[in-house]
Design a protein that fits this description.
By secondary structure, the chain is an alpha+beta fold. It is about 15% helix and about 20% strand.
Length: about 110
């Protein structure tokens, strides 16, 4: 599920969590019979786990071009806080300009 600017996605059912992210419906936990049916010979059935993967990206304009770069949770939170008031942010890019390392409000 795509979270943008801290806003609730239309398909979101769960959230926001402790990181401000929204999630789709949690799948139903499989029964013991289902887990045992899925396991292959020589495998041992283990407790099912819900895997969540989060990739933070920031899309911004540079001149006439739009760029999307990977970033981290701290930068994402700065953007979420600045978004409602459309506060401009100064971005600090990483090595070879391949990531966004910092986002700070521009003083007026």
């Amino acid at each position: 599920m795509l979270n943008q600017n801290g806003l609730k996605p239309s398909a979101a059912v769960v959230g926001p969590d402790d990181r401000g992210l929204w999630w789709p419906t949690v799948p139903q936990k499989p029964s013991v019979d289902e887990v045992e049916q899925r396991k292959k010979p020589q495998e041992e059935a283990s407790k099912p786990e819900l895997l969540k993967d989060v990739k933070y990206q920031l899309t911004y304009k540079e001149g006439d071009q739009q760029r999307t770069l990977p970033t981290n949770y701290e930068v994402y939170r700065q953007v979420v806080k600045a978004y409602p008031s459309r506060t401009p942010l100064e971005l600090t890019l990483g090595v070879n300009d391949n990531s966004v390392e910092k986002a700070e409000p521009i003083a007026k």
